[in-house]
Write a structure and sequence with these properties.
The chain is α/β, with parallel strands linked by helices. It is built from 9 helices and 15 strands. It folds into 2 domains: about 160 residues, VC0802-like, CATH 3.30.2130; about 180 residues, 3-Layer(aba) Sandwich (Rossmann fold). Helices cover about 30% and strands about 30% of the residues.
């Protein structure tokens, strides 16, 4: 077991924490929280969870290993408790970077102040020097009101990795299409792995299908609109991917079983529900999922904040697991709800 650091983006930090928990569960890894903060999680798990998160995650920004944590006060003497020989190993040079995660700033929580003091401690303890060009190791520092966290940086997930798959770059476009970061997150929290079948019963332009296929998951898309079916197939081909996409009604699913479900049903100004209300669509979909989704399988559903998704799921005897909100614009805040078929 190793102590790991996961840093989350500032706009949806709870989404990142749920993504880490989901990925640990998918691969059967224990995750023992040590410190839980709104912006970061320090937990003990197998070292290869760090690699899994870096390969798959969307809403985690930085992953660190060999974590050491000390109280922020009294500053800077508390930094003497850090063991940089253990943290840096045989590395001769290093580079320091970091982030301050609490808004209120005092003289001893300024990022540059803390980094400078850490540099002094490293020089005093080890004699090792900074190298911005080619450091042997990179140290990442997180500063909160209570803690100073230092970890050996394992890797970083940059938003630009997803940029080429943004809806505006696809051959088939629709104004209601969701961004690829959120699509990837939905695939991950549906708790599916390579070879599993993931169903999207409102596949739209194929965003969820694309992210699932990139992870080696088998995507199955269903949509009542034939334009969306053709458009999803076109978008998948654009990235050299394949998925089964069929025309069908989510209220009467043309599939017998699925390992997971991730979907963003039609709503908002640019969406059409073909005469049915969104409440009716979800109520019938959830009833269908009781027989389609595998035992203890997960479904993640996006919907407008005001829609009582949790109530509709309870009517179908689907277990509520988690929910989170995403502000989109003045007229729309999305609620994401994770459910489990018990």
């Amino acid at each position: 077991m190793e102590t790991l650091l996961f840093l989350f983006p500032g706009d949806r930090p709870s989404f990142g924490a749920e993504e880490v928990r989901a990925l640990a569960e998918v691969y059967g890894l224990e995750l023992e929280p040590v410190v839980s903060h709104q912006r970061f999680l320090i937990a003990r798990s197998r070292s290869w969870l760090a690699d899994i998160v870096l390969q798959r995650a969307a809403l985690v920004r930085v992953v660190g290993i060999g974590v050491q944590i000390v109280p922020r006060l009294p500053f800077p003497s508390t930094l003497q408790q850090l063991d940089f020989d253990a943290l840096m190993g045989d590395s001769r040079t290093y580079y320091l970077e970091g982030v301050r995660v609490d808004r209120k700033q005092t003289a001893d929580t300024r990022l540059m102040t803390v980094l400078q003091e850490l540099g002094k401690q490293i020089l005093f303890q080890t004699g090792k020097r900074v190298s911005a060009a080619r450091p042997d190791c990179r140290l990442f520092v997180v500063i909160s009101k209570q803690w100073v966290v230092v970890a050996r940086k394992k890797g970083e997930i940059r938003a630009k990795f997803f940029k080429q798959r943004c809806p505006k770059y696809r051959k088939f476009r629709h104004p209601a299409a969701m961004d690829p970061i959120t699509n990837r997150w939905m695939v991950n929290v549906a708790r599916v792995k390579k070879g599993d079948l993931l169903l999207d019963p409102f596949c739209g332009t194929g965003g969820v299908l694309i992210e699932a296929a990139l992870l080696g998951v088998k995507p199955l898309g269903v949509d009542l609109d034939p334009r969306m079916v053709r458009g999803s197939i076109e978008n998948l081909k654009m990235y050299g991917l394949h998925a089964e996409v069929v025309r069908g009604d989510a209220r009467y699913l043309p599939v017998r079983s699925a390992d997971g479900v991730a979907t963003d049903p039609p709503y908002g100004r640019h969406a059409s529900t073909w005469g049915a209300t969104l409440r009716e669509l979800l109520r019938k979909l959830f009833t269908q999922l009781r027989g389609v989704l595998r035992h203890r399988g997960y479904a993640v559903v996006a919907a407008p904040q005001e829609l009582p998704v949790r109530v509709l799921a309870a009517e179908a005897d689907l277990e509520y697991v988690w929910e989170g909100l995403q502000y989109v614009h003045g007229g729309l805040t999305r609620r994401f709800v994770i459910l489990r078929n018990m």
